[in-house]
Structure formats: structure tokens, C-alpha cells
Amino acid sequence: MASKHSRVSYSLLVLLLLALCFVGSVHAGLKPSDCQPRCEFRCSATSHKKPCMFFCLKCCAQCLCVPPGTYGNKQACPCYNNWKTKEGGSKCP
Q: Looking at the whole model, is its pTM more than 0.70?
């Protein structure tokens, strides 16, 4: 009985580690050279492209992450989401 319990525990541990590796690889693999195309897509729906690109590139270089989509989804990049201006607004688009 103990060996069956150990196999189940081991299997769950392996699945958890695989899931964590997958989630980490989504965001951790970004290099500064990847920021330009991701920010171009992120800023594609705004009418203020120049400031959006400036801040997106700055945030991407610092955080090595750009949230998916053209708006919102900032919870996918905690650093990007939590970087605030002096006034308390979001620095990153």
C-alpha cells in the first residue's frame, strides 16, 4: 500500500514540476531583442503609438515580459503590472 501511495505522490510531483516549467518558460524566455515585435503588437490598437512604444519597450527591457493582447492581461507579467508612476498610475501600457 505504501508503494502505491509513493507512486501517486511521485506522479503528482512530476506533473506539478512540468506545469511550473511550462509556465516559467512562457515568460522567462523573453530576451530584450524580443521586445520590439511584442510591443508593436501590444501598441497596435492605440492611437498613441509613440508613447505606448516608448513605455512598452522600457517596461519590457526591465521586466523581460509583455502581457498578451493589445490591452489588459497585465496579471500575466507581475513586474510589468506593478511598475507605477509617481502619481500611482501604471507605467506600462
A: no
Boundaries of domain holding 23 = 1-29
- What span, in angstroms and rounded, lies between the C-alpha atoms of 44 and 22? 27
> Residue 93: which of 64, 62, 61, 70 has the closest Cα?
70
Q: What is the pLDDT of residue 30?
A: 83
Residue 86, phi-psi category: left (phi > 0), alpha (psi -120 to 50), beta (remainder): alpha
**What are the φ/ψ torsions at residue 90 (nearest 5 degrees)?**
-75, 130
7 and 36 share a domain? Answer: no
